[in-house]
Amino acid sequence: MKRVITYGTFDMLHYGHIELLRRARALGDYLIVALSSDEFNAGKGKKAYFSYDDRKRMLEAIRHVDLVIPEHTWEQKASDIGLYQVDTFVIGDDWAGKFNELQAQCEVVYLARTPEISTTQIKAELTKAS
Ligand code: C2G
Questions:
Q1: pTM confidence score
Q2: Residue 56 and residue 3: Cα distance in Å, rounded?
Q3: Distance of alpha carbon 81 from alpha carbon 103, whole angstroms
Q4: Which atom of ligand 1 is nearest to the CA of 71?
Q5: What is the pLDDT, as a whole number, of residue 87?
């Protein structure tokens, strides 16, 4: 069984996220999503609209996703890869090159982001429309 992991906030889930998850899952047989906690998001300078629990519930409803675990720190990736026997680490290419050190443990894949959609853009357009 080929196990894949990816990390992110996945706030206000949109088709860009779904496309990432679909392609990530297609690289193996089992997809783990490490979901940024509300506290970790604060460290990323992000305040998610939906709580961790709500974001987790939405991800768990996606057929491409097999397991959701919390992302608490930047550093946990190396231990997660060992703990969950991960074969492939995947993330969008806005992070290209940032996690190459993980190549010592597993395959590292940067997938092209889906253009024209982001949570930031959605929030900005909703604010403008209101
Ligand atoms: N994404 C995408 N296309 C978009 C928007 C997002 O492919 N239009 C991808 C991102 O590249 C990322 C994933 O969807 O791989 C989740 O995006 P975010 O929730 O913005 O995650 P991010 O804040 O980048 O967190 O430790 C890594 C961080 O937790 C990544």
A1: 0.97
A2: 19
A3: 11
A4: 29
A5: 98
